[in-house]
Write a structure and sequence with these properties.
alpha+beta; two-stranded antiparallel ribbon; 3 helices
């Protein structure tokens, strides 16, 4: 499902216009992104948790040459599914 399909599904399920659904989705994604930028978590009970994880610097290998390279530390967004979501997928 892409963004356009998601907006259409949200509009139909909620009984709102596609324009309102798009505004809601945009607001949600902006709030999650802003919260993660501030290094905080977003927890939606039953659905899951969005958070930022920090990866330490490490030594890796260039697969083409086998040469050792230094990989810098980084921060990445992470989503952990909640119990209700996991159970819904299992069914």
């Amino acid at each position: 499902m892409n963004k356009t399909e998601l907006i259409a599904a949200m509009a139909e399920k909620a009984g709102i216009s596609k324009k309102d659904a798009e505004k809601s989705l945009t607001a949600f994604t902006n709030i999650v992104a802003d919260t993660l930028i501030d290094r905080d978590r977003v927890s939606i009970t039953g659905f899951g948790t969005f958070e930022v994880v920090e990866r330490a610097a490490r030594t890796g290998r260039n697969p083409q040459t086998g040469e050792s390279i230094q990989i810098q530390a980084s921060k990445s967004p992470k989503f952990k599914a909640g119990k209700a979501l996991k159970n819904a997928i299992k069914a």
